[in-house]
Amino acid sequence: MGTILQLRSVSKTYREGRNEVPAVESVSLDLRRGELLLLMGPSGSGKTTLLSMMGCILRPTAGEIRIDGTVVDHLQEATLPDIRKKHFGFVFQSFNLFPSLTAAENIELLLRMKGHEKKTLRAEALRLLEKVGLSDRTDFYPADLSGGQKQRIAFARALVGDPPIILADEPTANLDSKRGREVLELLKRHAAEQNKAVAVVSHDPKAEAAADRVIFLEDGRIKE
Ligand code: ADP
Ligand code: MG
């Protein structure tokens, strides 16, 4: 009932010329509403590949992904952008903010892309920045903000359109441990209070404190 995203025997093999690189092998997992699921594992263990498949950014070579019970048909590539827009908010290690746009404008841009009503773009951007505790930084440019603040803007942007699932790839990797903890706490509170599903990739053992559940990957497989 609480499951929103379901992976069944999902695999991804990259092709590099004549070589095949198995990055994820037969992973099954459920992501539930209200939880922060932490995906851990050493560098190269397949975390980013797995998260990209969960977010319908990358097509699996085998297996099945369901969102809210409906199978995602990865062969219907034209439908994937709409699926991403509707179901997912993404947060990346490198923030991916536009340097020439202010905090509010960075959020307004995605609001516009997601078809938000023009008249209320600004108000909605300010509302989301308030949620992440940045009401006093709305007109600042990324260069004038700290890493933690930038990542909170990126999180506010991921909340655009109120997606049921947030996926974050190493969101704390460029932050000191205090700011990293703050970002994880924000993600966890979002999951619990808004009943949203949050999956976070990290290789930082300190992230475990914020997780409801931890899955370890090793060589592309779940390690029990
Ligand atoms: P992690 O995020 O845990 O560091 P990745 O998912 O990035 O792991 O990578 C898993 C494996 O897949 C690694 O062996 C990596 O070299 C390989 N890999 C990742 N992306 C590609 C790609 N685009 N082409 C070929 N191999 C890749
Ligand atoms: Mg990675």
Overview of this structure, please?
- The protein has 224 residues and is of the alpha/beta class.
- The protein has a single domain, classed as Rossmann fold, CATH 3.40.50.300.
- 30% of the residues lie in helices and 29% in strands.
- It has a six-stranded mixed sheet. The protein has a four-stranded antiparallel sheet with strand order 2-1-4-5, with helices on one face.
- Helix 3 runs parallel beside helix 5.
- It starts with a strand and ends with a strand.
- Bound molecules: adenosine-5'-diphosphate and magnesium ion.
Count of DSSP H/I helices: 6
First-last Cα distance: 24 Å
Poorly predicted ranges: none
Structural class: alpha/beta
The tally of strands reads 10
